[in-house]
Amino acid sequence: MNAGWDALLAGVLLLLVAVAAGWALYAQALRVDRLHRQVLGSRATLETQLVHRAQAAAELAASGCLDADSSHLLSRAAHDALECEAPLVEDGLDPSSVAPDPDVHMRTRAAVESDLSRVSRAVLDPQTRCELMGDPLAAQCLSRLDRAGYRLVLARRFHDTHVSETRRLRRSWVVRLFRLAGRAPLPGTFDMDDDLGPEHPPARHDEERA
Hints:
Number of helices: 7
Distance between the termini: 72 Å
Radius of gyration: 25 Å
Helix content: 55-70%
Shape: elongated
Strand content: under 5%
């Protein structure tokens, strides 16, 4: 009789262990999926901030507050960024993004956006900034571009943080052994030049909250 009870108890314990293990794996799989969604969400926010920055740069270039050469350079870089059709990150994580045609040469989105950063820094040197701040319209355009640039830095930081967390979790032996990520591609960071430059004014607290 005791042997029967012992066997029953052992079976129940094994069942409980199996259920607990299954639940733990399910919870881990949900966590992986949640992190993938966070990456896509932060990527959409990053996309929005990139567009806002390019629009602000195009607005400043068209304001007539810069010299002709500077306006041309900034306008071309801004419109290149607005018209670029390459995916933000070519990792295949977003099923709605269109994969680039391998037969068509297309610059990466990061390269195009980095060009806009470099042109902005070159055009808006400290002396030019000082001159623009003396004109109300120019100061407004410049302020909008500065805010857009700062928000872009934050958006890229948040995106790449989510990517790092996802990649770290997916490197764990549990996720790899039980294939808890399914066939989802490994997310990639958005590696662009978003340096605001030493002449960029420090962000105010109200900009940080905006």
